[in-house]
UniProtKB/TrEMBL annotation:
It catalyses: 4 porphobilinogen + H2O = hydroxymethylbilane + 4 NH4(+). It comes from the Bacteria. Residues 3-194 form the Porphobilinogen deaminase N-terminal domain. This is Hydroxymethylbilane synthase. It comes from Svornostia abyssi.
Length: 315
């Protein structure tokens, strides 16, 4: 029996599924999951696409769901588990339309729908305005070309996988989203054959980093309403995780990097989250949770503060 890989039908999702299929070789088959009316009604917006694949897994229609790891929520449904991840692509955020953040004109419109990217671009350049640019990667690049914004923030990994790496004019030192650049495989907890297939194409560094970054998110109690970044990097026996928590308007943030042993990525995630919470990250998370404006301009200027954090670090 071939391994059935479930994927969404977007260009990025299909590119990721084809990549996984090529790693698995002959025994993989791609099953494109299209949204059925009945199922869709039961689902909430943000997690819709991940949930759709999870329902197909639970129904036995597919054996492995192929996801962008950063879109996978912290909590998985009973009976499902993450089984592995192939080697990570570039985890960084890319700037399209300008050679650097410094080069953006005064008051430039920067397109993103990510609170995390908004928080970090506004922390670096408080004069710019964040505009919500939605749609798939090609749609967003077209909106940039059409002049709807001066520049666009996108994941370098998504651009690469779509053959559009040329559109990245700079790679930023923002803290990436947890799991950014990682493709992860989800399966049924009792499916040994699927687990073995996922294990065979798993890259230890990507998988270790993902465990650490996902632990940071759950320990922070972060949601999709809170700007949070976490990026773990292996260096021999050491694992370093860089964590960012901020307000969507860039007015205050905490960034801290913690180094630990590669042997316990979850423990490092717990330590890093505890440090960030102790440095004021917990307050930022509660304030951010209460802010609703997607462009991050819902707070008064008085709430703008200076950076805090154990390292007093900057973005
Ligand atoms: N939220 C959409 C999404 N999910 C994964 C990627 C890119 C691929 C990756 O990060 O692995 C993107 C596009 C983007 O953020 O620019």
């Amino acid at each position: 029996m071939p391994i059935r890989l479930g994927t969404r039908g977007s260009a990025l999702a299909l590119a990721q599924a084809r990549h996984v299929a090529s790693l698995l070789g002959d025994e993989a088959e791609i099953v494109e999951i299209t949204t059925t009316g009945d199922r869709q009604r039961a689902l909430v917006d943000k997690e819709k696409w991940v949930k759709e694949l999870e329902l197909a897994l639970l129904a036995g229609e597919i054996d492995l769901a192929v996801h962008s790891a950063k879109d996978v929520p912290g909590e998985l449904p009973d009976g499902l588990t993450l089984l592995g991840a192939p080697a990570r692509a570039d985890a960084r955020d890319a700037l399209c339309g300008a050679p650097s953040l410094e080069a953006l004109p005064e008051g430039a419109l920067v397109g993103t729908s990510s609170l995390r990217r908004a928080a970090q671009v506004l922390a670096a350049r408080e004069d710019v305005s964040v505009v919500e640019i939605r749609g798939n990667v090609d749609t967003r690049l077209r909106k940039l070309a059409d002049g709807e914004c001066h520049a666009l923030l996108l994941a370098a990994a998504g651009l690469e996988r779509l053959g559009r790496a040329d559109a990245a004019d700079a790679l930023l030192d923002f803290v990436p989203a947890p799991g950014q650049g990682v493709i992860t495989l989800e399966g049924r907890a009792d499916d040994e054959a699927a687990a073995a297939a996922a294990r065979a194409i798993t890259d230890a560094a990507a998988w270790t980093a993902l465990q650490c970054e996902r632990t940071v998110v759950t320990e922070l109690g972060a949601t999709c309403h809170t700007p949070v970044g976490a990026h773990a990097v292996l260096d021999g026996d050491a694992l370093t995780v860089d964590v960012f928590v901020g307000l969507p308007d860039g007015g205050a943030w905490v960034r801290d990097a913690v180094r630990g042993s590669v042997s316990d990525p979850q423990e490092l995630g717990r330590v890093a989250a505890a440090r960030v919470l102790a440095a004021g990250g917990g307050d930022l998370l509660s304030i951010a949770e209460g802010m609703t404006a997607p462009n991050g301009r819902s707070t008064s200027p008085e709430q703008r503060g200076s950076a805090v954090g154990p390292d007093g670090g900057g973005v």
